[in-house]
Design a protein that fits this description.
The chain is α/β, with parallel strands linked by helices. It is built from six helices and 16 strands.
Length: 293
């Protein structure tokens, strides 16, 4: 529902997630359930829905994926536009994006005036490598003007969490908040996001799904436990491992701009990039002996 309560402090925003349980292939039904969850939510400024929340996740093959993929005029983007406009808020959520012959595992960030920003997943997980095209990047931040507050947000999708470079790129681009639509099957992400937020001094909203996609020959079960994590590593809101729900909390975006961890240390300014060449070297040999040995 649209609420009238406005955060009291100048730099405060209401951020949240919806944890959903989609039925594979039932796009109209999944969108209807998503709308019901949003209708039950307290007032929010930015809210994240899971990865592929309208279609489900376990595609048997690329042909099945293509049959459910959509472009920017499709039902998922229409759903996000309508609900962002009705709630005077920003919504992010994942969808299978068709672009000509290519299909990406994408996330859209949609604003109340119809603004649309799309991120294509860079790090594909397991069978995604067989059906989705690789994201063509790069990681980008978007500045949102919400009342008198300006906040910079960046998007990750699910398995991107596994690569610390993903969150670090967004932090270096100025992100205050990471929006993280997910369909998590491993149990480690929620704990890892504590570290991602601590090492970068950012907020993160991880919106996961629950339930299973059992397609007979292939299946996946999802871990739920969506969460909002603060720049100091504190878990500000969390969901159970099962069941649909919505959570919203108020954050002060200025907390993400305080990068100092001691009087003499700064998370980003203390970096020594001249020594990080291996991070961008393709096909680096992890077993190679350091020079001088």
């Amino acid at each position: 529902m649209v609420g009238s309560d406005v955060p009291a402090k100048q730099n405060e925003l209401r951020v949240g997630f919806a944890q959903t349980c989609p039925e594979f292939g039932d796009v109209p039904g999944n969108l209807e359930r998503g709308r019901a969850l949003l209708d039950s939510a307290p007032a929010f400024d930015v809210l994240v829905l899971p990865e592929l929340f309208a279609t489900g996740y376990v595609f048997r093959d690329r042909a099945e994926l293509q049959s459910l993929a959509e472009d920017a005029t499709g039902p998922t983007l229409q759903f996000l536009r309508e609900n962002a406009r009705e709630r005077s808020a920003w919504l992010a959520g994942g969808f299978a994006e068709r672009d000509g012959a290519r299909v990406f595992n994408s996330a859209a960030l949609v604003g109340p005036e119809g603004q649309v920003h799309i991120y294509r997943k860079i790090h594909r997980f397991d069978r995604e490598t067989e059906v989705f095209d690789p994201g063509d990047g790069p990681f980008q931040c978007h500045e949102l003007a919400i009342r008198e507050v300006r906040v910079r947000v960046g998007m990750l999708i699910c398995f991107d969490w596994f690569f610390p470079e993903s969150a670090r790129c967004l932090a270096l681009a100025g992100a205050d908040v990471l929006l993280h639509p997910s369909n998590l099957v491993m149990s480690h992400c929620q704990r890892a996001m504590v570290t991602r937020c601590l090492e970068n001094g950012v907020f993160a909203v991880t919106a996961n799904r629950v339930g299973s996609d059992d397609r007979g020959d292939v299946a996946a079960t999802f871990t739920g436990a969506s969460q909002i994590t603060g720049p100091g590593g504190a878990i500000l809101e969390s969901a159970p491992a099962t069941g649909e729900c919505v959570r919203v909390t108020t954050i002060d975006v200025e907390d993400a701009r305080k990068k100092r961890i001691s009087p003499r240390n700064d998370r980003l300014a203390d970096r020594r990039p001249e020594h990080y060449g291996l991070l961008t070297k393709e096909n680096a040999d992890p077993g190679a002996a350091p020079r001088g040995m």
